[in-house]
Structures are given as structure tokens and as C-alpha cells.
Design goal:
alpha/beta; seven-stranded mixed β-sheet; 34% helix; 24% strand; binds N,N-dimethyl-L-histidine
Length: 322
């Protein structure tokens, strides 16, 4: 009998949290900085979906092309009766390219903090792959979570982490996250991860400063969210979006730049912005094969295979724990 996907570890409204202390600490830091996780409320997630369709935002299109072209080779690396674990699974759209090539998968375990998003995606995957065991886990994938029990045992665990999400973590946190994935994968486990590659800065800056202003709206929505959820009084009209390439760090940084000197109130605190002062809202690291391999090795992973597009814009990497 087909089971209805029910999330493990679910916490209603888990996606709606905002930690006042963390936000205030970030706004009092120099430079001011907030976690990119805060960009993804309901509206932010919709705007991110729209970003993925933009002509300038080559990442999604390129990675999808790589997955479509090389799914069979990736499936051969994953092997038979694997458990496919996807942290931050979102809509699970790209996963289907792998699922199509993995008819013998033991189970698919999507992990996402947004319960409604997770459940809708898990139901859709279950409907499309009725014989597959789909076991959604509602959790923050940067924190510890346990894997659910399977109906039939798996031969190994392979983590699927597409989308260049790893690039949104600074090096120490990225290594910690890769270590967590290694822990979840266990001995003999694998990792299939999508990373964006360093390239002409003009192409990178265009991808994050799109013509239609969708990325600007995505960035600005953070202020709207702080107003709504933390009773702040940001005036979004007094800030502008900017995304800049920082070569020394090999990353794009998204900023909100204060257009004037201003005071913002948040809960019972006051935060001053000087004219031109920046609030850093996201880091998007761009790798070389070598810089990624160094990070992965530091977390106990050994790179085994890599696939890229003809322009060398993006790479999907396969790694093992031994
Ligand atoms: C989710 N993440 C991989 C995106 C990126 O490209 O770093 C987030 C994003 N920010 C602005 N545009 C897209």
C-alpha cells in the first residue's frame, strides 16, 4: 500500500522563525550582516523561484542541463538500492532527473525547513514515482537531524545538494555542513553537489543585478519581512540593492545600501545607518575545482568525478567518504 508522505520532526510554522537576538547582533556588527536564510520567507521563496528563470541567472539552467545530460553516469556512481538524501530539497524539481535514472532507489528523503513546501513537494514526487518510498523530514539541514527508518534497507546513503547552495556558506560553515553531510551519509556514503564556478566578473554581476529587478526585490523583501515579523520600521525606499564581485574572496556579495543617514527601530532597539552604509545580506562563493576539492577534503570527502557544461560555468561533483 502506498503511504502518504508525513514529515518526520515537523514543527508547525518552522519556516517562520526569526531570531531577534541574531538579527540585532547582525545589525550591530561591523559591517552589518544578516544570515541569507532570512531571505526565504514565503515571498522570498517565490522571488527566488522567479530568479531561477531569469535570462541572466545561468545557474539553474546550466545545472539542470548537466543533470539531464549526465544523469545515467551519476546514477552509476550512486549505485543500486541507495537512499537519496536531499537537504534543502525545496520543490525537488531537479531531483526528478536523477530519480528517472534510478529505478532501484531504496528511498528518497527530502529535508526542508518549510513544512508546507516540503509536504507539497514530497506528495508530488510520491505521485510521480508511486513505487518509491518518500520520507520527508522537516528540519533545518544545518542542524543535526536523524534519518527515518526505511521499509527496505538501503545499500548506502548518497546526499544530493544541488543549486550552489553550498556557496552561500563561508568557508568554516561550508566545511561544517560538508562534515554534517558526511555524518549523515555514513561509512561508504556519497555526495553529489552542485557548485558554481568562478568566471568573468561581468557575467557574475549580471546574474545578481538582473535587468527586471527581481533580485533587487528579493533582497529588499528582507526589510519587509523584518518590518512584519520583528515590528521593525525599515523604509525600503531608503535602501538600494547592490551585488558586487569581491575577487579576494571569490564571491558575489549582496548588499542593501542605505541611501541616507537613518535610524531604524526594531523591537525596543534602535539601529543607526550612515549614508552609504551597507547591510550584507548574502555571500555567493564561486569555486575552482581545486578550491572546492580543498574544502571537501577538509570535511573528509574525496572527489571522484565531476561534470560540467560546455562553457565551464557550473560543475556537479561526486565525492565519497573514503
Ligand atoms: C540559493 N543560492 C544558491 C542563490 C545563489 O545564487 O547564491 C541565492 C541567490 N541570491 C541572489 N540570487 C540568487
Amino acid at each position: 500500500m502506498r503511504r502518504r508522505p508525513t514529515p518526520v520532526g515537523s514543527r508547525p510554522g518552522a519556516a517562520d522563525w526569526l531570531l531577534v537576538e541574531q538579527v540585532l547582533a547582525g545589525l550591530r556588527a561591523t559591517p552589518k550582516r544578516l544570515s541569507p536564510a532570512y531571505l526565504y520567507d514565503r515571498r522570498g521563496s517565490q522571488l527566488f523561484e522567479a530568479i531561477c528563470e531569469l535570462p541572466e541567472y545561468y545557474l539553474t539552467r546550466t545545472e539542470t542541463g548537466i543533470l539531464a545530460q549526465f544523469a545515467d553516469e551519476m546514477a552509476a556512481c550512486i549505485g543500486e538500492r541507495a537512499l537519496l538524501l536531499e537537504p534543502g530539497s525545496g520543490s525537488s524539481r531537479k531531483t526528478r532527473l536523477l530519480l528517472d535514472a534510478l529505478p532501484d532507489l531504496a528511498a528518497y528523503v527530502p529535508v526542508d525547513i518549510s513544512r508546507s513546501h516540503l509536504l507539497a513537494a514530497a506528495r508530488a514526487v510520491q505521485a510521480a514515482y508511486p513505487r518509491l518510498e518518500v520520507l520527508p523530514v522537516c528540519a533545518d539541514f544545518t542542524q543535526r537531524y536523524t534519518l527515518p527508518a526505511l521499509r527496505r534497507p538501503s545499500a548506502r546513503v548518497v546526499v544530493f545538494f544541488p543549486g550552489s547552495t553550498l556557496g552561500n556558506f563561508d568557508a568554516p560553515e561550508a566545511v561544517r555542513l560538508l562534515e554534517r553531510m558526511r555524518h549523515n551519509a555514513g561509512e561508504g556514503g556519497g555526495l553529489l553537489v552542485g557548485i558554481d564556478l568562478a568566471k568573468d566578473p561581468a557575467i557574475l554581476e549580471r546574474a545578481y543585478n538582473d535587468h527586471a529587478g527581481v533580485t533587487a526585490a528579493f533582497n529588499m523583501n528582507l526589510l519587509v519581512r523584518l518590518n512584519r515579523e520583528l515590528a521593525a520600521d525599515f523604509d525600503p525606499g531608503s535602501f538600494r540593492h547592490e551585488a558586487v564581485w569581491v575577487p579576494a574572496e571569490s564571491r558575489i556579495e549582496m548588499h542593501l545600501v542605505s541611501l541616507r543617514a537613518q535610524t531604524v527601530h526594531l523591537v525596543d532597539a534602535r539601529v543607526q545607518f550612515a549614508a552609504g552604509e551597507r547591510l550584507v545580506t548574502e555571500h555567493c562563493h564561486k569555486y575552482t575545482a581545486e578550491s572546492f576539492a580543498t574544502q571537501a577534503r577538509a570535511a573528509g570527502w574525496t572527489p571522484r568525478r565531476a561534470w560540467t557544461d560546455t562553457q565551464g560555468y557550473f560543475s556537479v561533483q561526486y565525492l565519497e567518504t573514503v
